[in-house]
Amino acid sequence: METRQQGFLDSEPLREADEELVSEVNLNNSILTEEEREEIQQELAKLEEEISTLKQVLSSKEKQHSELKQKLGITPLSELKNNFSRGWHDMQTSTAYKKTSETLSTAGQKTTAAFSNLGNAITRKFGDMSMAGLELLFPRRYVPFLLWFPQFVWFE
Predict the structure, then answer these.
(1) pLDDT at 1
(2) How far apart, in Å, are the Cα atoms of 40 and each of 31, 53, 91, 109?
(3) 6 in the Ramachandran plot: left (φ > 0), alpha (ψ -120 to 50) or beta?
(4) Can you give the pTM of this predicted structure?
């Protein structure tokens, strides 16, 4: 095997020999005395028992929790509704929502003004046209429509 300097951050990729060395290391075979091993196993058993007890306590508390909610008439649907309402209120009172709302309101006002100006310009153009101009713009089959609905046509 090749010898090379090993630094804290080795920039060279692993080679096959390196991979074999890593796979041969068994982390479970640490040197423990029989007493230490027994002590660790007892501690592990104690922890497992505590976990089991805590799971039982938690289960009991969850059951008690649901019974109390049921007595108060709190259903999952009502909880969802309350959470949604609270979330909606929180969102509406947030600074980001207020700024976005103001921006969209301003944009809507400007868009309305732009369309209004466009409509006024189109109305002026139609008002400037004579009937002959309308016939050029619209085929004869549309002229009766324009006569029946004079609000769309302005004649001088």
Answers:
(1) 47
(2) 13, 20, 52, 73
(3) beta
(4) 0.37
